[in-house]
């Protein structure tokens, strides 16, 4: 498999309701103080804003040394999706501010320059959703969710008729259910939903961890779109958290019950060009402790394996920097 599919971005959504506007903080948006509305000042604000967004997307690292930065700065306005001026009353030392929303795809392309792991596609998200009558929703029923997920860089798939997962077990984070689903669909990312006419209940399962939330008060299409946005925000934050850290250390892998399991794990490591070396240190009936050296943070690589369904997050293990469970 390819290196970890890290996309380290969050996106801005501005939800406008009758009588009030609520802004959801996102890595794709930035507010820059400006002196006036001239083109020169606006373009400089675009450049400053783009630098800030790239820094956030790089987990706070200075983006100016990245391979794609110089080319991006030649025309920063080309990455802008929308912008809006607002009066500040002199706050931040300027009479105006410019709210800028950058195009998610453009940001991903900038950060992908020279980094095949970032450019690689993400694992799909399996969506197991039912309506109030208990009907399992198919691709056509989930069009608003699929469209928004695609905009955010995520592809969704729905269960096959012959392999419908146990939604309740998945939503509870049951290890056996998650492992079975990962094996069947080659993804460790599942969105479980209960869709009513004006309310939705969601649980995101990623690498064995679960997060739940509710939404209501809008038409079904809007609720589905909101669900995709919330899902993408959570996944973006999860993968962003794996960008830093050591590129070498000890990784405990449980779930290796046969020679075939062990061979499959080693093949995963050997087929990953980011892995420089991997060597077993010790083994028990429960698993193997490996010493691994890589060209990328280990947490990032493990997150990629997990999103593709190859491993699940496991409880901490004595002597290991990271602990996972192998899914054959």
Account of the 3D structure:
The chain has helices spanning about 40-55, 70-75, 105-110, 115-120, 145-150, 165-170, 175-185, 220-240, 260-270, 300-305; strands at about 15, 20-25, 30-35, 80-85, 95-100, 125-130, 155, 190-195, 200-205, 210-215, 250-255, 275-285, 285-295, 310-315, 320-325. The chain is an alpha+beta fold. Strands 7-6-8-9-10 form a five-stranded mixed sheet, sandwiched between helices. A five-stranded mixed sheet has the order 12-13-11-15-14, with helices on both faces. The protein has a three-stranded antiparallel sheet with strand order 3-5-4. Helix 5 runs parallel beside helix 8. The two termini are about 15 Å apart.
Helices and strands, in order, run as EEEHHEEHHEHEHHEEEHEHEEHEE
Biggest sheet strand order reads: 7-6-8-9-10
- Amount of beta strand: 25-35%
Major β-sheet, in short? 5 strands, mixed
Give a quick set of tags describing it.
10 helices; five-stranded mixed sheet; 29% strand; single chain; flat; 328 residues; 15 strands; 32% helix; alpha+beta; disordered N terminus
Summarize the structure.
With 328 residues, the protein is α+β, with helices and mostly antiparallel strands. The protein has helices at residues 39-57, 69-74, 104-112, 116-119, 143-151, 167-171, 175-185, 220-240, 259-270, 298-307, and strands at 13-17, 20-24, 29-34, 80-87, 96-102, 125-131, 156-157, 189-195, 199-206, 209-216, 248-254, 275-283, 287-294, 311-313, 322-326. The chain has ten helices and 15 strands.
């Amino acid at each position: 498999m390819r290196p970890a599919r890290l996309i380290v971005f969050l996106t801005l959504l501005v939800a406008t309701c009758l009588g009030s506007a609520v802004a959801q903080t996102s890595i794709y948006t930035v507010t820059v103080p400006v002196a006036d509305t001239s083109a020169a000042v606006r373009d400089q604000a675009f450049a400053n804003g783009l630098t800030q967004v790239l820094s956030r997307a790089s987990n706070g690292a200075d983006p100016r040394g990245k391979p794609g930065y110089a080319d991006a700065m030649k025309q920063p306005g080309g990455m802008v999706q929308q912008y809006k001026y607002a009066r500040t009353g002199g706050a931040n030392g300027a009479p105006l501010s410019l709210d800028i929303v950058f195009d998610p795809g453009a940001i991903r392309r900038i950060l992908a320059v020279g980094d095949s792991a970032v450019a690689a596609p993400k694992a799909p998200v399996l969506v197991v959703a039912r309506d109030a009558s208990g009907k399992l929703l198919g691709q056509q029923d989930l069009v608003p969710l699929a469209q928004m997920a695609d905009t955010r860089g995520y592809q969704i798939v729905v269960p096959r008729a012959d392999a419908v997962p146990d939604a309740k077990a998945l939503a509870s984070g049951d290890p056996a259910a998650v492992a079975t689903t990962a094996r069947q669909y080659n993804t460790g990312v599942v969105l479980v939903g209960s869709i009513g006419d004006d309310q939705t209940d969601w649980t995101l399962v990623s690498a064995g961890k679960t997060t739940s939330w509710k939404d209501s008060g809008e038409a079904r299409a809007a609720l589905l779109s909101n669900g995709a946005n919330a899902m993408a925000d959570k996944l973006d934050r999860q993968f962003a958290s794996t960008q830093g850290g050591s590129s070498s250390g000890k990784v405990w892998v449980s779930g290796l019950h046969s020679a075939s399991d062990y061979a499959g794990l080693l093949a995963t490591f050997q087929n990953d060009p980011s892995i420089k070396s991997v060597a077993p240190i010790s083994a028990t009936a429960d698993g193997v402790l490996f010493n691994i050296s890589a060209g990328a943070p280990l947490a990032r690589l493990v997150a990629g394996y997990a999103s593709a369904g190859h491993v699940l997050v496991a409880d901490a293990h004595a002597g290991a920097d990271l602990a996972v469970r192998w899914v054959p």
